[in-house]
Amino acid sequence: MSRSSNGQQQRRDSSHSTITMARRQHVTLTIALALVLFFSISYFFSGRTVSARDAAGLTTGATRPAPEKPLQDGHDAGSKSEFTVDLDEVPGSLLEGDSIAPKLENATLKAELGRTTWKFLHTMVARFPEKPTSDERKTLDTFFRLFGRLYPCGDCARHFRDLLAEYPPQTSSRNSAAGWLCFTHNMVNERLKKPVFDCTKIGDFYDCGCGDDKKGKDKAGHKEEGKREHGDGGDGADGVKGTEGTRT
Question: Where do the ERV/ALR sulfhydryl oxidase domain residues begin and end (predicted)?
Answer without folding.
Answer: 106-206
